[in-house]
Amino acid sequence: MDGPAVVAAHAALQQVLSRFPKGASTACEFSARSLEVVVGQEAGLYFVRIDRRPERCGWAPGVSLEFDWFELYAVSSDGRVLGRHPYMP
Q: From what superkingdom does this record's organism come (predicted)?
């Protein structure tokens, strides 16, 4: 990944982590370890999709904590989050 893609991924990841319950911050399921980040670029913007991967925290493969949980962000190359499409609008 190029530098701006890493900055965009980090900005989106911070947004997701800030939405997790504060009391659960020590649980693996509510940490960056349980998240998968996919970055794409189109028309000068980065689109960052973040998926939960509970199997990274010891859950059985294929387990989902929510039905098709994901977050999708539009992020500028300097790391400004321009828009968010939540998994449950």
A: Bacteria
pLDDT at 66: 64
| Per-residue model confidence (pLDDT) at position 7 | 95
Is 18 a domain residue? Answer: yes
What's the total number of domains in the chain? 1
Q: How far apart are CA 78 and CA 89, in angstroms?
A: 26
Domain that includes residue 26, residue range: 4-67+75-81
Work out the burial of residue 75: count CB atoms within 10 Å of its CB; fewer than 13 is exposed, 13-18 middle, 19 or more buried. buried
> How far is Cα 57 from Cα 48, in angstroms, rounded to an integer?
22
Q: Model pTM greater than 0.90?
A: no
> Residue 60: pLDDT above 90?
no
